[in-house]
Design goal:
CATH architecture of the largest domain: 3-Layer(aba) Sandwich
CATH topology of the largest domain: D-Maltodextrin-Binding Protein, domain 2
Order of helices and strands: HEHEHEHEHEHEHEHEEHHEH
Radius of gyration: 21 Å
Number of strands: 10
Largest sheet: 10 strands, mixed
Strand content: 15-25%
């Protein structure tokens, strides 16, 4: 009981000190996986918008490898000067590896769910399917003969396909590739039959007539896929699978700092130019509360974590 009381006192003291101290009074580091790509792009938009608001530079620190970036952030001091932008891989990787150097719940405090990126179910034009129900019928008529392309194990397009198989009760054969780009190339070339591809990546091939789009993976229709129904309303009730990305702070970062960063970051994400640039890059702004982001993380850990365990997906 004495130790508990001491912990409560120290926690209250940290909050009081954070409220009294000027924050920020030095640059803030936003650690992100990769020195290029969509996560780095989003991080730079956020940092560029936050710097003038906070009166201090928010510097993007791109690191090769998601585990390295996450470990740096997890071990940083909980003072608001190190933040981390990451996606579902942060909290789903522990289900796919025997060991990771962080705990996604214990070591981080959610700040905001920044954006989401849906996938689109597309088929090669040689596949006689013009709807989700047609795909399900084909897969059930010839179990295992219909194949689908994915990137690396556990990526958004892979999990979207595995969730579809599980919820639709179909057996399709996975054709894995070292990334979404080569997977999409082979789909366009007719070497594979279907894919759950990123909206921005598949759009040109749909427009050219080389691929046929059937439905979007988000729970609601998406402006990134105008006119397309959702998979949920096309034969798989309750289906939803999108890649989500958000900003987190090290655990035990004082609540006043979390509140300040969330409030200002949400404003930045809702700026018209920021929303437009992210939309043109294939993502939709969410800009949630810390509580909503935490709930989204726990929901994915429950649903997709179970899916990963049940299907034996590994990324060792």
């Amino acid at each position: 009981m004495r130790n508990f009381a001491a912990a409560v006192f120290l926690s209250g003291l940290a909050v009081a000190q954070a409220a009294e101290l000027p924050y920020p009074n030095r640059p803030i580091r936003l650690v992100v996986s990769g020195i290029a790509g969509s996560s780095n792009f989003a991080a730079r938009l956020i940092a560029n918008g936050m710097s003038p608001i906070l009166g201090q530079q928010m510097v993007v620190d791109g690191r090769e490898g998601g585990v390295i970036a996450a470990e740096i952030a997890a071990r940083a001091a909980p003072d608001g000067y190190t933040l981390h932008l990451n996606g579902s891989a942060l909290w789903l990787l522990p289900f796919m590896r025997a060991r990771v150097p962080y705990d996604p719940v214990r070591d981080f405090t959610p700040l905001t769910l920044a954006l989401s990126t849906p996938n689109i179910l597309v088929v090669h034009t040689s596949v006689p399917a013009k709807s989700v129900r047609d795909v399900i019928a084909l897969a059930k008529a010839k179990p295992g003969e219909l194949n689908y392309a994915t990137g690396n194990a556990g990526t958004s397009n892979h999990l979207a396909a595995e969730l579809f198989k599980s919820m639709a009760g179909v057996n399709m054969t996975r054709i894995p590739y070292k990334g979404g780009a080569p997977a999409l190339n082979d789909l366009v070339g007719g070497q594979v039959q279907l894919m759950f591809g990123a909206a921005l990546a598949v759009a040109p091939h749909v427009q050219s007539g080389r691929l046929r789009s059937l439905a979007v993976t988000s729970a609601k229709p998406s402006a990134l896929a105008p006119g397309l129904p959702t998979i949920a309303e096309s034969g798989v009730p309750g289906y939803a699978s999108v890649a989500i990305f958000g900003v987190l702070a090290p655990a035990r970062t004082p609540p006043p700092i979390i509140e300040l960063l969330n409030r200002e970051m949400v404003k930045v994400l809702h700026q018209a130019e920021v929303k437009e640039r992210l939309f043109n890059a294939g993502s939709e702004v969410v800009a949630s509360t810390p509580e909503a982001f935490g709930a989204a993380i726990k929901a994915e850990m429950m649903t997709l974590g179970k899916l990963i365990k049940d299907t034996g997906i590994r990324d060792d």
